[in-house]
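Dear all,

This email documents one entry for the complex benchmark we are building for the journal club exercise. For each entry we list the sequence lines for every component of the assembly. Then comes the predicted three-dimensional structure of the complex as a token string, followed by one or two observations. Please use this as the template for your own entries, and keep the labels exactly as they appear.
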Amino acid sequence: MVTIYDIARLSGVSKSTVSRVISNHPYVSTETKSKVIKVMQEYNYVPNSLAKQFRQKKSKCIAILIPDLNHPYFSQLVKYISADCYKSGYKTVVHQTFLNKEIEREVYTQLREYEYDALILTSSTLSEEEIAENTRNKIIVACNEDYRGDYFDVFCLNEEEVTMKATSHLISKGITKLGFCSDNISSPLQKARLKGFILAHAKKGLKHNKSLLFNEISSIEDGIMLGNSLFKDNLKIEGIIAGSDFVAAGLIRSAVSNNIQIPQHCSIVGFDNHPISLVTNPQISTISNHIPDMSNDLVNHIVNKINGVKQPPIKKVYKGEFINRNSS
Amino acid sequence: MVTIYDIARLSGVSKSTVSRVISNHPYVSTETKSKVIKVMQEYNYVPNSLAKQFRQKKSKCIAILIPDLNHPYFSQLVKYISADCYKSGYKTVVHQTFLNKEIEREVYTQLREYEYDALILTSSTLSEEEIAENTRNKIIVACNEDYRGDYFDVFCLNEEEVTMKATSHLISKGITKLGFCSDNISSPLQKARLKGFILAHAKKGLKHNKSLLFNEISSIEDGIMLGNSLFKDNLKIEGIIAGSDFVAAGLIRSAVSNNIQIPQHCSIVGFDNHPISLVTNPQISTISNHIPDMSNDLVNHIVNKINGVKQPPIKKVYKGEFINRNSS
DNA sequence: ATGAAAGCGCTAACAG
DNA sequence: CTGTTAGCGCTTTCAT
């Protein structure tokens, strides 16, 4: 391996000068610079970034914590975050937890061990306190997880409010047997949605039906299976807040197989305004998110923090909108 | 920052001993070990992995090159690869190229600069030679890109053969005006598919219709737009190999809007056997892949290579199957 | 504008 | 089983 020292020797300058050439430092004469560059090319020199990272105590790398990449919402989220980080000169390591607390804790350990300059949390099964405990003094930002924001920055959607709006819409159509699907109800985001769902009932003096709360429903297949149990014999349900457009698509598929008319017999609302909501029949009423904006703001913020800008934790809330299509 | 030296001093042993404790080296007495551990906890010591990586010249990190994460095929692929790498003790950095050659080359530079122990290529806009040129001596494996495998290992599907099968199926139904969609025709994978498409024609003494080759078609929206142009006035087409189930779903949506019956007026075949192929009406005929197996084999292989197992480039081909549903 | 020198935190021979 | 020693390749004062 040819090192900075070899290049220095070979071009008759000192290591410092070579280092200055590599990092484009201004204090180096044009002649020396071109001489050094020539030698570097001749000997096929490549700087060792591991040494640089070690020396500077900066990995130029940000970790992203998600449950599972093969999920339209998370893959979209990571797409934007990762691309924005790249633009700011940071690589991203994607960690899938599959909702396993141990894996999640290991990532916090790596963060403490200086492997990452910061961590972006998009979902967690731990409490805000436990996360703070595991990551003290480290830079950590939550993206669309509805934490209070006492210990770290939070960028999120108004999940509670917009779920309430969608639920109220269904209630105002006279629907009472109303169901709610969540992916992982222990996450703050999903709890916020449920809160909105319950609140919409409360506003009309109604109580939600606890037997129509379904957890761990996240994919098309889950939607189909849930639909089959719901639609089979007699209709146990008149409306469903589906948690994602994919679940909604599965429910609609199941309804078709079971001769249930959507929305006449049962209204369905998805989440995320994914293009899949356009290809089902009927098209899916859904809730839009603000992933590109959120990602952009979040990455700017986190880079500032890495560069030493100090400020108390902030919480920024984006407004999702209910989009009324044909499934409700 | 408390270092290994501090812990050594504080617990009355040498740095080496502390190092041995950290890495669970056997040659250290139980008493010394517990004494050192106690001091480490007391002083909240965390090892600096940047130093370790530098010292060992190993980043314990593998880069994955993909065009775009927000794509059901790639997000599934990365899900498995990333999880398998994690199990083997490697982190993964996901690099989206968005088909930009410059970004791709920068990743090769990082690879040369020791930022990654290896690189997994799932798609590239460069030739096998140029890639080899950019990454000489480095460990690099192609995953489902149909390179020849002269310079690096290749794990891929029998894209050509299975596309030929699906195309032959359509031709045997008497369809002649047959279209083909690709995402990025410069990639070897897509070229292989096209070759299969053409071959199926040739076998029946037919010529494929060049005006029915559509490139840069990859999403639901693309499928809808293409369908709208194809189905609008008079039917210019009787069958389409759609390139992905998402494109197929978009085409079906467009067909519904334009009063075209699938498959009576036009047959459609997708790719990947994604669950979306179950929720459209009709359900989509498609081609299965072998992502979990491929990922598992590939990661085992790459880890062996990192650990110094030498062997000439291998090429392993998996068999995808044509699944005949209701859209064809 | 350039060089000398110190050192980042850790591992790994080697010696005992 | 434990300690000594010698760096890994680079950046960064501090001189000059």
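Observations: The two ends of chain B are 65 Å apart (CA to CA). DSSP finds 13 helices and twelve strands in chain B.
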